[in-house]
Design goal:
The complex is a heterodimer of chains A (160) and B (419). Chain A is an alpha/beta fold. In chain A, 20% of the residues lie in helices and 29% in strands. A three-stranded antiparallel sheet of chain B has the order 1-2-3. Chain B has a three-stranded antiparallel sheet with strand order 6-7-8. Chain B has a two-stranded antiparallel ribbon with strand order 4-5. In chain B, helix 5 runs antiparallel to helix 6. The longest helix of chain B is centred in the first third of the chain and has 29 residues. Chain B is globular and about 85 Å long. The chains are: A alpha/beta (160), B mainly alpha (419). At the A-B interface, strand 3 and helix 3 of A face helix 2, helix 9, strand 6, strand 7 and strand 8 of B.
């Protein structure tokens, strides 16, 4: 299955696939950021692969000079009963990522959560609002430079 | 129209003029031509916690609905980055607080996959036992509270009576009824005892009859069926596209169950059916949960019979916490305990995703390890949040009284949805 995925993906878009990782039996394909929706559409519609469910979309702050953020897409194929992870790298200078809500509508809320927690802007998302934090919150709490204790007075509390 | 007497006018001047003078008075020419925005929650008994819904109504029909989350957001993913892998186990209790013990197991399974720890067979069987007990306990609340939402209070009392018996077994097993923190990396906190076996056997003997009693309250109950049948219908394609898992997906005819599809623990050795129905309405979700409870009881009977002897945690001192009585009496165990608590288990650098089929759906943990004792990033894939994302589609076109029946059939737990 893994060989088939890699073979099909490199045949479909050799310039989009930036590499892959295989750790403890989980396959992760690293995809160029601009092509994520196109690659997703291919993985969903290809008759042999049929990754028809998006289980989760999540961000990771790697806290490094280049390509600081990663966005990971966890996909599942009902027919093949297999998982696949896609990963795109996002530089701090350009925080936009193409949205995959057009491919999998289920990416809507996970992308909102990633925007909420990391400030990554998903272009083409129908309703990019914060999911958990209040609307007026100014920070992105899961970034590594946000302190675990929080920032005093960043959330308005009712006065006594 | 009757002629007004002076008395009437004076009475009106006392009560109504005060109201009519308010500048908040609104006059509708035709109330049915106006949309009305209704705010439901976050403090509402039918939202199962602190879910807030903004609903736009046309008469009694829902035109649009926007769920609003975050009222129980405690930042567990941030807390996880600041605590060691062991320290986070008690926090997993607070995710899906109706089946805390299966969250513990889901979490430690992810760590064990990351660190490459093999657990002994007895530990795997005990985990299956507690997970299936948790599934029954959670589905009992789901069934009971859904029935309560549509007006049948008795069912909730009867299902809680059954749930108490399971919580009593937890009490004997690990000393806690609710926030269990039972699983440990590489094993369990306590061994399964013969007393637990006896209690579970007694529970299983009575359970089929007791569940049939609950079912009989509802299956010929005209009010319940009228309020749930063909309510909250959604197509299979929409559910798959939205990434919905668990009983909601299975009630639309998709037989996705990770216990069978990607077996973990010892589920591949156990014989059970994946319950599916095709109606995809609130009533079908109710019957899927009833069927799953029967299957869980079946799994419990098999697992009790197959429960092997042997150790209940792995012999791996660099990863598994030593038993407390040995920590206090032996030097080597004391050193290991100190290192594991203060520094952590140091899994290899890499990232994994591990998921189990919890009572609500797919509960997954995505962990990025940088080789230290703390996770660099931990993402909790909570089934409740994903299932709630179907609410706008489910509620569109429904009647206002159906909202509670639909939310009840989703069975969200906000502790898990808000993390």
């Amino acid at each position: 299955m893994k060989d088939l995925i890699l073979q099909k993906l490199t045949a479909f878009a050799p310039e989009s696939v930036r590499g892959h990782e295989d750790f403890h039996g989980d396959l992760t394909v690293i995809v160029r950021k601009e092509d994520i929706a196109r690659v997703g559409q291919f993985l969903k519609t290809d008759p042999d692969l049929t990754f028809d469910m998006v289980i989760d979309v999540l961000g990771v702050d790697m806290y490094r000079p280049d390509d600081r953020f990663e966005v990971v897409y966890i996909l599942y194929s009902l027919r093949n009963r297999a998982y696949l992870r896609l990963k795109v790298r996002v530089d701090e200078q350009d925080l936009t990522v193409p949205s995959v809500t057009g491919v999998w509508p289920g990416a809507n809320w996970p992308e909102r959560e990633t925007f909420d927690m990391f400030g990554l802007k998903f272009t083409g998302h129908p309703d990019l609002r914060r999911l958990y934090m209040p609307e007026e919150f100014e920070y992105y709490p899961l970034r590594k430079d946000f302190p675990t204790m929080g920032i005093p007075d960043s959330l308005p509390l009712p006065r006594r | 129209m009757a002629v007004r007497t002076t008395d009437d006018v004076t009475r009106k001047s006392r009560i109504l003029t005060a109201l009519e003078d308010q500048d908040t008075a609104v006059v509708f020419d035709d109330p049915l031509e106006n949309d009305m925005v209704l705010n439901m929650g976050p403090q509402h008994p039918a939202t199962h916690g602190v879910l807030r819904l903004l609903i736009r109504l046309d008469g009694e029909t829902v035109v649009a609905a926007v769920p609003e989350l975050g009222y129980l957001h405690r930042g567990y993913e941030k807390i996880a980055e600041a605590s060691t892998y062991h320290e986070f186990i008690p926090h997993t209790d607070r995710l899906d607080y109706l089946s805390p013990i299966s969250n513990n197991v889901a979490y430690v399974l992810a760590i064990e996959k990351l660190a490459g720890i093999e657990i002994p067979e007895r530990a795997a069987y005990i985990r299956v036992l507690v997970c299936e007990m948790a599934r029954i306990a959670s589905h009992l609340v789901a069934v009971g509270s859904m029935a309560m939402d549509v007006g049948a209070l008795t069912v909730l009392l009867w299902t809680f009576r059954e749930r108490e018996k399971i919580l009593d077994i937890y009490d004997v097993l690990c000393g806690a009824r609710f926030t269990t923190s039972f699983a440990r990396i590489g094993g369990l906190q306590q061994d399964w005892t013969p007393q637990c076996t006896a209690m579970l056997r007694r529970f299983l003997e009575e359970f089929d009859g007791d569940l049939a009693e609950v079912e009989n309250l509802l299956k010929t109950n005209r009010i319940f069926i009228d309020r749930c049948e063909n309510v909250g219908t959604i197509s299979r394609e929409n559910l798959i596209g939205l990434g919905i898992t668990g009983p909601i997906l299975r009630a639309s005819g998709v037989p996705r169950d990770l216990r069978r599809d990607i077996p973990y623990l010892v589920y591949d050795k156990l014989d059970f059916e994946v319950i599916t129905l095709t109606e995809s309405d609130s009533l079908a979700r109710f019957y899927v949960r009833i069927g799953e409870m029967k299957q869980s009881a079946r799994i419990l009977r098999q697992a009790l019979g197959m429960l092997p002897g042997g150790p209940f945690h792995a012999d791996d001192p660099k990863h598994v916490l030593p038993r407390k009585e040995r920590t206090y009496t032996r030097m080597e165990e004391l050193i290991h305990d100190f290192m594991l608590i203060n520094i952590g288990i140091d899994p290899p650098v890499g990232e994994i995703y591990s998921a189990v089929e919890s009572s609500k759906g797919e509960l997954g943990f995505y962990i990025v390890s940088d080789g230290t004792g703390h996770p660099w990033r931990m993402k909790i894939r909570s089934p409740s949040a994903n299932n709630l994302s179907a609410l706008p589609l489910l509620l569109k076109g429904a009647m206002i009284s159906d909202i509670v029946a639909i939310i009840g059939s989703i069975d969200p737990v906000m502790g898990e949805a808000d993390k």
